[in-house]
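Quiz preparation item.
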């Protein structure tokens, strides 16, 4: 007899809308914590009301151990009722107990059931109306705020209005804590139609409160209303500006945010600035920009960082104000303002004295009001320069980032700020240098580098940090230089640094490729100089494997792709080298009209996405036709041919790599399930059977963990095929009787539970008949032991059935890796020698495409020695860096840079050690992401004596 599954408190049951299949949630363990809440509430009834300490201890224990998923709906209702009764009993007792009860009631709202939540709101407001303690009322408002936010989607408007109305009544309280919470609740739940009727003015009134927390919350509530969609009036600007002078940092933070929001919302609104005698109108965005610039001189580092970040968001500011941020000279109406001392010195230098011809030319200096004199920069004057010179790196990084954002919107500002960004290359902090390098890369299309700027940039190429050097390679490839001397300076410095850091070879090649593409005419002028081609004498042939010579060839070949006459300047030996490099490096060396060279295109250019999509649809239609063939002997060979076609498509068209490999892996699992299904009725050899099962499980894990960008329909098909594979795995393991079936049984139950939960959440999707039968059969098993589960599912597993192929989804991406260092090809000349038993450190660099953030913790480096001994290295999260491009950081492509340690006992000769990059998807199972890199490793015996 099947046990009845308890109703989860997180579910809502709708009569008449049940899907045709049965919703199932598999439970593999008994619920040991059920009834804990009820037991604790029973203990509360036995405690005397006078014993407040014991009562408080029990409430704290309930709050710490409360697990709502273990509670049933009637239990929740009873808990709410008992806690409210206890609150009423303690009305004249300890306020701490009442505060604790209100906190518990807020925690109970996380069940997200409308009936429970509505009761909670009504009860809490009901008991708070008669409450006298401001501490309890403040906690009640906080609890109402938490309840409302947790259940915003299911709460009716009536209850939200009731909460807002109650909070508005509490604004008249004398307690600052109550006022603060009331403002928070009012801003979150008041109707936006009421906000237009003066609620914003009411909230803004509390910006003049005596308490700093209330002032900050008032401004924060106005911002909250703006985020919800209320229109914030420009009249709030002056209030926000006044609050920026507050003594408390929390108030200034909110005021600064409000100034930014008003400037962005009403950029063209004209406001009056200046004194009553000098009424000057200016745009609100310009005035706000000036005030935010002033905050860069704030005493608080948090305010300065916030102000520096906000400057980058104000891209609609006028150019005159924007350029003034890079000039420290004091301005008045955008004109240089001379000091009294400067004006007097100018008069003396001119030799002019009072002649009586001009009225009052010998009058005394004007009277200055001390309050009008400021010793710091005024408004936007030199604000970004102050940010770049700040003592804290956080402010400097935020300032550089804002300069980049503003320069992207204002090309003329990009030219002005270039020198300032170049100066930041000499910053003492590596993060600041990197931010400046990547910012300059982003705005490179707006600028042309001069020789003096290049000198500072190229001096940073010798930086010890490999990330800085690679960032400079990327930046130099994105920029344009002005003269031949600049180009030669770049090439010579790159070659000098490459000799010092040979590990930068690939990055330098990519830089030379971009430089050649952007400067074909300059390259043509220096071709003979770079190739050392003498006009009369033949020079010696250079080594084509020399990295420095390769850099020059890559530069000139890419320039010749845009300017074909350069080819006429190449000597014969260079043309021969081109033929070799075109085959060896098709991604770095472009096709040129040179006789005898290969004309094949790189793999990137072979396929068109449209043609690949048509071919993919043709292959899938062919597969569906193959499934209709009745005999397995004829069907399987055709399916394997289609599988090879899908694999080849992924190799030809990189855009279709993820889609083609996903379908190929899915089809491989289909073929393996069909072949193994025949083993359920007869006995077969154990070794091939075990190997086939392991391969099937590996393919299922690949479908679940290697691919991203799947639709919900794709996920359902993957879960269905994994369920069949798990069921087949259990049946074959039980039949084999050579290993324990407990693990496969648990895996089957876990897979069934996963797909059942998925179907509960996505009710618009329907599983196929076999999946529904398996889920129903598993749900009916009271004690799911391997033998019993085997007998129940065996008739279903033996049925021949096919899971339909997923539709072509070009958004699917595949996680794969490419090991850059050590070189994947084993070199006979580069042998790592170390004394046996000691350690050799080996640099490891790999690029990983389409790696999700959650998968970084699962990345493993495996080292396989010749004696089949395996060593696993877990890289640190700090070793993963996003790959930078000219458009910015890539979201899912990362570079892993770390050091691995090799050690072993004595070998007779150098032998190969394989290094692989894997994804650990579950204990004992790793999925390889690339082909292994092989190195020669030779542990030498320990030398005895002298």
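Solution:
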């Amino acid at each position: 007899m099947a046990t009845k599954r308890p109703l989860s408190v997180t579910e809502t049951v709708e009569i008449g809308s049940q899907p045709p299949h049965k919703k199932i949630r598999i439970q593999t363990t008994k619920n040991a914590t059920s009834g804990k809440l009820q037991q604790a509430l029973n203990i509360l009834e036995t405690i005397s009301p006078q014993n407040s300490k014991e009562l408080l201890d029990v409430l704290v224990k309930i709050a710490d151990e409360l697990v709502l998923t273990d509670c049933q709906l009637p239990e929740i209702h009873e808990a709410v009722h008992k806690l409210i009764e206890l609150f009423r009993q303690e009305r004249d007792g300890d306020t701490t107990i009442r505060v604790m009860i209100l906190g518990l009631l807020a925690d109970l709202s996380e069940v997200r059931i409308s009936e429970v939540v509505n009761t909670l709101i009504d009860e809490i407001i009901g008991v708070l109306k008669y409450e006298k303690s401001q501490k309890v009322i403040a906690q009640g408002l906080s609890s109402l705020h938490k309840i409302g936010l947790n259940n915003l989607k299911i709460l009716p408007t009536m209850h939200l209005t009731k909460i807002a109305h109650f909070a508005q009544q509490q604004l008249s309280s004398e307690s600052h804590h109550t006022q603060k919470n009331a403002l928070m609740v009012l801003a979150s739940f008041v109707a936006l139609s009421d906000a237009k009727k003066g609620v914003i003015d009411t909230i803004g009134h509390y910006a003049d409160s005596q308490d700093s927390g209330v002032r900050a919350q008032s401004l924060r509530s106005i911002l909250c209303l703006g985020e919800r969609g209320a229109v914030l009036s420009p009249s709030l600007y002056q209030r926000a500006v006044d609050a920026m002078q507050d003594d408390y940092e929390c108030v200034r933070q909110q005021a600064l945010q409000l100034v930014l929001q008003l400037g962005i919302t009403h950029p063209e609104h004209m406001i009056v600035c200046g004194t009553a005698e000098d009424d000057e109108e200016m745009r609100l965005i310009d005035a706000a920009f000036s005030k935010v610039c002033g905050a860069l001189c704030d005493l608080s580092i948090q305010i300065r960082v916030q102000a520096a970040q906000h400057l980058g968001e104000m891209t609609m500011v006028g150019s005159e104000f924007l350029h003034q941020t890079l000039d420290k000279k004091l301005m008045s109406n955008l004109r240089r303002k001379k000091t009294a001392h400067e004006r007097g010195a100018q008069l003396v230098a001119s030799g002019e004295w009072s002649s009586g011809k001009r009225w009052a030319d010998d009058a005394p200096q004007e009277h200055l009001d001390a309050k009008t004199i400021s010793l710091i920069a005024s408004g936007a004057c030199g604000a970004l320069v102050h940010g770049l010179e700040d003592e804290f790196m956080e402010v400097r990084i935020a300032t550089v980032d804002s300069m980049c954002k503003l320069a992207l919107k204002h090309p003329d500002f990009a030219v002005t700020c270039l020198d300032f960004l170049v100066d930041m290359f000499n910053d003492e902090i590596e993060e600041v240098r990197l931010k400046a390098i990547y910012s300059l890369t982003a705005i490179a299309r707006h600028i042309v580098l001069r020789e003096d700027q290049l000198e500072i940039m190229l001096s940073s190429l010798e930086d010890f940090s490999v990330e800085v050097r690679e960032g400079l390679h990327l930046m130099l490839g994105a920029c344009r230089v002005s003269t031949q001397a600049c180009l030669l300076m770049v090439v010579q410095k790159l070659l000098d640094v490459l000799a010092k850091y040979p590990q930068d070879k690939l990055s330098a090649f990519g830089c030379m490729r971009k430089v050649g593409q952007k400067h074909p005419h300059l390259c043509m002028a220096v071709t003979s100089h770079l190739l050392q081609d003498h006009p009369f004498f033949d020079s010696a042939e250079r080594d084509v494997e020399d990295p420095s010579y390769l850099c020059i060839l890559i530069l000139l070949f890419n320039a010749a792709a845009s300017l074909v006459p350069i080819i006429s300047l190449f000597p014969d030996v260079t043309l021969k080298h081109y033929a070799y490099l075109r085959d060896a490096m098709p991604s770095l060396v472009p096709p040129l009209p040179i006789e005898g060279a290969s004309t094949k295109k790189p793999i990137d250019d072979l396929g068109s996405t449209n043609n690949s999509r048509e071919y993919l649809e043709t292959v899938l239609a062919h597969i569906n036709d193959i499934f209709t063939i009745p005999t397995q002997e004829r069907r399987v060979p055709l399916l394997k041919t289609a599988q090879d076609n899908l694999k080849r498509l992924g190799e030809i068209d990189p855009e279709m790599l993820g889609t083609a490999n996903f379908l190929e892996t899915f089809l491989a699992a289909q073929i393996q399930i069909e072949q193994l299904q025949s083993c359920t009725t007869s006995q077969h050899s154990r070794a091939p059977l075990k190997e086939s099962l392991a391969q099937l499980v590996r393919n299922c894990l690949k479908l679940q963990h290697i691919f991203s960008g799947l639709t919900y329909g794709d996920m359902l098909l993957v879960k269905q095929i994994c369920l069949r594979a798990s069921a087949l795995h259990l049946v074959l393991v039980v039949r084999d009787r050579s290993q324990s079936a407990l693990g496969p049984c648990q895996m089957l139950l876990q897979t069934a539970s996963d797909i059942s939960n998925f179907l509960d959440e996505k009710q618009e999707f329907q599983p196929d008949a076999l999946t529904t039968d398996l889920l129903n059969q598993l749900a009916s098993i009271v004690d799911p032991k391997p033998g019993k589960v085997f007998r129940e599912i065996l008739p279903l597993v033996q049925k021949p059935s096919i899971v339909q192929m997923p539709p072509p989804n070009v958004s699917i991406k595949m996680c794969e890796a490419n090991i850059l260092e050590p070189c994947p090809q084993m070199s006979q000349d580069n042998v790592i020698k170390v004394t046996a038993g000691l350690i050799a450190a080996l640099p490891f660099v790999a690029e990983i495409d389409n790696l999700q953030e959650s998968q970084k913790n699962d990345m493993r480096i495996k080292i396989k020695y010749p004696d089949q001994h395996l060593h696993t290295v877990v890289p640190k999260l700090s070793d993963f860096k996003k790959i930078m491009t000219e458009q910015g950081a890539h979201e899912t492509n990362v570079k892993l840079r770390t050091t691995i340690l090799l050690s072993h006992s004595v070998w007779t000769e150098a032998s190969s050690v394989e290094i692989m990059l894997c994804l650990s998807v579950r204990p004992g199972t790793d999925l390889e992401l690339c082909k292994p890199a092989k190195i020669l490793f030779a542990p030498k015996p320990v030398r005895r004596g002298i």
